[in-house]
Amino acid sequence: MTPLRRGGGSVEVELVPAGETATVVCEPELGQEVRNVVVTDSEGNRVETTTDEDGNVTFEMPEGGAKVEVVFGCDGGELCGTHAFPDIDQDEWYHDSVDWAIGAGVFHGYDDGTFGPDDVLTREQAAAVLYNYLGGEPGAPGSGLSDVSEDWYTDAVNWAVENGIMTGYEGAGAFGVGDALTREQFCSVVAKAMGADLEGVDASVLDGFSDADLVSGWARSAVAWAVEAGVVNGVENPDGTRSLQGARDITRAEMAAMMKNAVDAGVLATA
Asked: Of 35, 218, 230, 231, which residue has the fewest beta carbons closer than 10 angstroms?
């Protein structure tokens, strides 16, 4: 049995016969901590576990063996990639995603030393994130769009336009520098970045979301693809249902999370 792990650390599982107690020993790397340990049987059913005072997890080995998945995450200490940002809270849902994005060099903070997790992501920032992650090269031909001037984002925007990942507004001749990117637009951008085939995508996967009918017609295939791939999980509503909120502006933290989802799912790979 080979345990699965996410994040930094080692995992050892004692192999025992069915019915006996197995022990999972987790050793986080420096700056990491154990976030979660999930054990399932051969049919995918959750197996009850117990954690001792040393952090070791034990469970009764089921018939047919077990699958053990251990998730490690940043402990929020000085080795944490986001430790220097005063506006990043380790206990917030986005912490691990932003930590990954900073460590991977795809996101950077502001000149004032903050990250701005809840700030709306602009179109040129989105281009820069993909440019950084996919290893875009400077020197792409000028986009010819009226609002793309010589600035920090120029190479990224020219690269995104040249590669068909992002375009200007139809009939306007402008890229939309400073304009926000919506959640459904993000799905389209990532699909284009990876050359995803959206023909024949089953849009019925959207039916499980309370606002499926509000997804723009042009974006339905891209959003369905993103949901199916695990890039987008939706937002939990107060009543326990989930919504896509496709037309809502995406935040910097949300894009970091969706980028990490895409990478973890193997959908977004480096060029």
From this structure: 218
Residue 81 has pLDDT above 80, yes or no: no
Tokens 């790397």 belong to residue: 29
Token pair, residue 38, equals: 């999930």
Q: In this structure, what token pair is assigned to residue 268?
A: 């977004």
Burial 135-166 (b: 16+ CB within 10 A, else e): ebeeebeebebebbeeeebbbbbbbbbebebb
- Give the pLDDT band of residue 8 (cuts 50, 70, 90): confident
**Mean pLDDT across the chain, nearest whole number?**
90
Amino acid at 62: P
Rounded CA-CA distance 82/90 in Å is: 9
Task: Map residue 176 onto helix, strand or coil.
Answer: coil
Contact 16, 46 (CB under 8 A): no
Angle, nearest 10°, between helix axes 183-193 and 123-134? 30
3-state secondary structure (DSSP) of residue 72: strand
Q: In the 8-state DSSP scheme, what is residue 224?
A: H
Q: Report the C-alpha gap between 3 and 26 in whole angstroms.
A: 11
Q: What is the pLDDT of residue 6?
A: 67
> DSSP labels for 228-253?
HHTS---EE-TTS-EE--TTSBPBHH
For 248, which DSSP code?
S
pTM: 0.74
* pLDDT grade for 2, boundaries at 50, 70 and 90: low
Signed CA dihedral, 221, 227, 233, 236: sign only: positive
